[in-house]
Amino acid sequence: MNEEKRYYKINEVAEMLGVEASTLRYWEGEFASLSPRRNNSGKRLYTVEDVEEARRIQFLLKQKGLTVKGAKSALSDPKRVNRQYEVVKRLEALKEEVGKLKKEVGVLMKHTISLDEQ
Description:
Helix content: 55-70%
Distance between the termini: 46 Å
Strand content: under 5%
Oligomer: single chain
Number of helices: 5
Largest sheet: 2 strands, antiparallel
Strand order of the largest sheet: 1-2
C-alpha cells in the first residue's frame, strides 16, 4: 500500500487482495465492520483501515477456511482475530525475507565457487 494515499478505489483493493471487486461488495453486505466511504458519485473509497479489515476477512475466509457465519462470529472477538492475523502477517514477512536471504547466499556461493576454481 502507498503510505501517502488516504483512499483506495474498489479495484485497487481487489487487486491488492487478489479478489474480484464483486467479492468485496459481497463482503460489505455481510460484514458490518467493512463499510468504505462513498464519494459524491457513489464510488467506494477504502481507507487503510478498511483495507486491513478486508484483509482480516480474507484471512478468516480463505486461510482459516471459515464460513461467512464463522468469520462473523470470529470478528466478534477482534483481539483474538487480530492476534492470529498479525502472527500470520509476520510469518509471511519472515518467509519472504528468508527467501531473499536464500537467494543472496546462493549468489555468494556461486561466486565463491567460481573464485576457488581460478
